[in-house]
Amino acid sequence: DTAVSQTPKYLVTQMGNDKSIKCEQNLGHDTMYWYKQDSKKFLKIMFSYNNKELIINETVPNRFSPKSPDKAHLNLHINSLELGDSAVYFCASSQDATEAYGYTFGSGTRLTVV
Amino acid sequence: SQQGEEDPQALSIQEGENATMNCSYKTSINNLQWYRQNSGRGLVHLILIRSNEREKHSGRLRVTLDTSKKSSSLLITASRAADTASYFCASLDSNYQLIWGAGTKLIIKP
After folding, report:
1. CA of A13: how far to CAs of A7, A90, A108, in Å?
2. A99 φ, ψ to 5°?
3. What three-state secondary structure class fits B57?
4. B49 by DSSP, 3-state: which?
5. Cα four-point dihedral sign A109, A54, A44, B79
6. How far apart are CA A40 and CA A38, in angstroms?
7. Sheet holding A73-78, edge to edge
8. Pick from B37, B7, B11, B36: which is nearest to B24 by CA?
9. Burial A5-36 (b: 16+ CB within 10 A, else e)
10. How far is B100 from chain A (nearest CA, A)?
11. Helix, strand, coil % (nearest 5) of chain B?
12. DSSP string covering chain A
């Protein structure tokens, strides 16, 4: 059973389009995250939700909007895609917001904007 | 978010040798975590060491923590080709924010 699953795995789209990435975890964790990993492998947190409530919202363009319908799901919607949005996006979950037990990561979504 | 530091940036060794990676951080921490990322895959949690611990083992992995120097090291003994991956440290600061290192790319040559 996949613990944190995100779809799609690959996404190629044109500038200006709107796209969504979905994430689901079956671990019963309270907290979920979206990370962006750039071409230099730097990991940057974007958002964090704890029990469907937004708790971390780093400086991210408001074209990015997370949505958490329940604590097992955290989706990422991106409007008006730009070339600079090309990256690998990782969803992750942790037992609680203290992050004291380590994260479980999804396998990533490679977004390419052309 | 601020970035921790890891060195070396890249490390290439022969299979069977030991690999050591270092991580430094800036603030006081609750714990420090190490993750592995295989090419094109997500990160996998390897080991967590708490701020009151100095050394921890898990299989061929040994992690040390020196809070006076604000540094940690990950030692992989008897390396195997399957250990080829990028390794990231992440320190959990007193605000429960996870600060990530830039990663060390490890290549194990057969």
Report:
1. 15, 18, 17
2. 55, 25
3. strand
4. strand
5. negative
6. 5
7. A4-7, A19-25, A73-78, A64-70
8. B7
9. ebeeeebebeeeeebebbbbbeeebbbbbbbb
10. 7
11. 5, 60, 40
12. --SEEEE-SEEEE-TT--EEEEEEE-S--SEEEEEEE-TT--EEEEEEEETTEEEEE-S--TTEEEEEEETTEEEEEE-S--GGG-EEEEEEEESSTT-TT-EEE---EEEEE-
pLDDT tens sequence across A38-49: 888 888 889 999
Inter-chain residue contact B31 with A100, CB threshold 8 Å:
yes
- Nearest by CB to residue B92, choosing from A40, A44, A99, is A99
Place of tokens 């408001």: A62
How many cross-chain Cβ pairs, A to B, lie less than 8 Å apart?
54
Q: How far is residue B63's CA from residue A103's CA, in Å, rounded to a whole number?
A: 18
The whole-angstrom separation of Cα B23 and Cα A67 is 34
Residue B55 CA to residue A113 CA, distance in Å, equals 44
Cα B76 to Cα A67: distance, rounded to the nearest angstrom: 39
Q: Which residues of B touch A (CB under 8 A)?
A: 1, 3, 30-31, 33, 35, 37, 40-45, 48, 86, 88, 92, 96-98, 100, 102-103
Residues in chain A where the model's pLDDT stays below 70: 1, 99
Per-residue pLDDT of chain B (110 residues; tens, 9 = 90+): 456 788 899 999 999 999 999 999 998 999 999 999 998 888 999 999 999 999 999 999 999 999 999 999 999 999 999 999 999 999 988 877 888 998 999 999 99
